[in-house]
């Protein structure tokens, strides 16, 4: 089989955009590219600072038509900015019901439906209020922008949208919180109601964005999800698009 490669499109905010950077070590996007090399093109469409309201408007500007390129997979990873507190200085907050509607609008957008990709909805990750306080002060913000409890509401909402839409959900919030040792019913790790959590601080560089260990956890979880949901689409199950060198045209 020869021809243009199908695409694995990553759509999200700064956590997606920054997943290409290898400045500090392991990076999610290059790892995914390596896993699917010669099988799929991994495309990063991360937009730093975007919330779902921005995302809905940006989507038709870059989505290829089926005759241009075919999407095999598409991730939708928003909520970290939507979950800013109401009235916060950045203006990124999106009310919870609007956030859910925007996610549905992305999943149901005609340009996405036309492609019929395998959709993966990612919940926003947890936040660490201790790290956030320092990072926000350094950026000139005097009032809090995010809290652990408020972010959890958006992770719960994202999970709900995925269940209602019948879309695969990578529950980043729960995966990270489980890694940090949190159990259901306990005060939230990352909240100032608890002492600092060393594991969560090693995952998040500023209380929100990912360190290499977090991107590795994201990558491992993504590959597990693909293996469980679509085992025929796991890298080892896919053939190279172009022949092995011994069979290549001469």
TrEMBL record:
InterPro entries: Iah1-like, SGNH_hydro, SGNH_hydro_sf
Sequence ranges assigned to domain SGNH hydrolase-type esterase in this UniProt record: 10-216
Alphabetized CDD domains for the sequence: Isoamyl_acetate_hydrolase_like (cd01838)
The organism's place on the tree of life at top rank: Eukaryota
Designated name of the protein: SGNH hydrolase-type esterase domain-containing protein
Organism the protein comes from: Alectoria fallacina
């Amino acid at each position: 089989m020869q021809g243009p490669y199908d695409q694995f499109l990553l759509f999200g905010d700064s956590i997606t955009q920054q997943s290409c950077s290898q400045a500090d070590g392991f990076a999610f996007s290059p790892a995914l590219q390596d896993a699917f090399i010669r099988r799929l093109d991994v495309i990063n469409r991360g937009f730093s600072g975007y919330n779902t309201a921005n995302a809905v408007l940006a989507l038709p500007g870059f989505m290829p038509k089926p005759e241009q390129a075919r999407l095999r997979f598409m991730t939708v990873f928003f909520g970290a900015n939507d979950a800013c507190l109401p009235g916060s200085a950045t203006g990124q907050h999106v009310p919870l019901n609007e956030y859910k509607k925007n996610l549905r609008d992305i999943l149901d957008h005609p340009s996405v439906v036309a492609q019929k990709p395998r959709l993966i909805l990612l919940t926003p990750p947890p936040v660490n209020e201790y790290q956030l306080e320092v990072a926000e002060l350094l950026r000139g913000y005097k009032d809090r922008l995010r809290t652990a409890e408020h972010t959890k509401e958006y992770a719960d909402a994202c999970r709900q949208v995925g269940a209602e839409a019948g879309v695969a959900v990578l529950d980043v919030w729960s995966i990270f919180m489980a890694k940090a040792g949190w159990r259901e019913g306990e005060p939230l790790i990352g909240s100032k109601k608890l002492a600092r959590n060393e594991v969560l601080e090693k995952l998040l560089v500023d209380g929100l964005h990912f360190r290499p260990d977090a991107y590795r956890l994201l990558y491992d979880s993504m590959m597990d999800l693909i293996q469980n949901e679509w085992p025929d689409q796991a890298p080892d199950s896919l053939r190279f698009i172009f022949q092995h060198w011994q069979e290549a045209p001469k």
